[in-house]
Amino acid sequence: MRQPASNLNQLSFNLRQSVDGMFNNYDERFFADTILETMKLFDVYPLFNITPVKAKGSWLWDDKGVKYLDLYGGHAVISIGHSHPHYVKALTDQLEKIAFYSNSVQNPLQEKLADKLGQLSGYPDYQLFLCNSGAEANENALKLASFVTGRKKIIAFRKAFHGRTSGAVAATDNPKIVSPFNAGHEVVFLPLNDEEALANALDHNVAAVIIEGIQGVGGIQLPEDSFLQFLDRKCRENNSLLILDEIQSGYGRTGKFFAHQYAGIRPPLITMAKGMGNGFPVGGVLIQGDIKPWSGMLGTTFGGNYLASAASLAVLEVMENEDLLANANVMGSYLRGHLGGMSELSLVRGRGLMIGFDLPADKMTVRHDLLFNHFIFTGEAKPNTIRLLPSLALNKGEIDIFLTALKHTLQ
Question: What's the average model confidence in pLDDT over 92-114?
């Protein structure tokens, strides 16, 4: 029997009310739960309880107004000094024009950057591939070496750090950060500066040997010039590609554009990042001219975007105009000379403004004391190394402030 229209209307109204009530209650519970919880950051970084809000030159200020001398540059990133006016203007001007488009259109800034980089680095005959970070630069260099040679075995060195992407972390001598997924790469680790070990390991399965210009995370460990020359010669004889990881040691930090240039070699692949953008995320690979690219061989969405290119070009212009390589040499010699005169320190080492020294066992709190008692940022490498990676524009007055504080903490 058919229900009267009035009854059907009443049933429909009651059903809607019931459904609306269910969803209203659900929304209330949902939003109540949401209010009680907030998304957390993935907690992988040990953080100092310091919140920088302003930076200029070699100095930082925190949210409480405390002023800090920065001798670490956020892992060797700050090359020309914080907030350099030419750098800020270049980024601001570019931001007002166009910030981003992908690598599917012409970007003349990339070509301008490549030209300037070729001039200042001494590699005008090389090719430039732009990416976003040091790990990505090394990943692409390893991939290129495998493409070119048709091989997959890699030789790296003990205490090496090359990044956290799959191939780069496999070539990093730290099992703690190598997952089972990454561990499938064929990588052999050798002692640094051991010619015999290298000669024995370098067979016809080796695609590349990757080495840092100076080991940074490993504690400012220098490959000997003679070892780099031996390595370069043996790689060429074996048709393996030598990859010079200049991510920390490049871009003028050692007083030459690249640390390997002290050895007088020209490796087929050179990787860069850190100081390249003075804080803007950018990386790159310099590629020997006879390595021929093909469409799609490498690729990146963000690499070499307008802002990254503008930042990188501004860095090179400041380095050239202010002669920062020469300053890194002079200031580095001054700093190392004074550190070498402190009897409490051992193995003062480095080139330019990439400097390390070791502390005695009873002075393991020096880095903490410098930061929280003297407001000076430095770096470290376990177990007892202090690393100094300041701006290339560091001056003697700032060095003297550090030396005075260091002497005080060593007393």
Answer: 97
